[in-house]
User: Fold this.
Amino acid sequence: MTTPSIGQLLDSTVPMAHTLNLEYLETSPERAVLRLPDQPAYHNHVGGPHAGAMFTLAESASGCIVLAAFGDQLHRAVPLAVKAEIAYKKLAKGVVTATATLDRPAADVVAELDKGERPEFTVTVDITRADGDVTGVMTITWTLRPNS
Assistant:
């Protein structure tokens, strides 16, 4: 039996992410890179990706890095997004890419979990358009809630 990829896991457990036809370019504990294809059904009033689609892209990238970094902890804790903030910096047009990174080493987060704590950590996601310009930045605070 083949183990599903992080992208397949996200698509199967988060139907909203699946609807956007996200492309999973890289999903590692160090970095997650997802791309939102240019799809007219998800355009806004100026012909670029809708803010909600960009939010979902960025949040999905953050979820992928969390699954990649902490998937081996799912037997004892559930990852939950606590809060998210997004800043739209420039007009996005065409294909956009989200790149997520953890704010601190995963081992530090797991060490807090080992001590019986409910660790919180931040994932930063840069959203770029095809020319490389950053069109948005999302910061998501996650927690690993220990199973009862």
Remarks:
- Residues 6-146 form a domain with the Thiol Ester Dehydrase; Chain A fold (CATH 3.10.129.10).
- The longest helix spans residues 51-70.
- DSSP finds four helices and six strands in the chain.
- The longest strand covers residues 134-146.
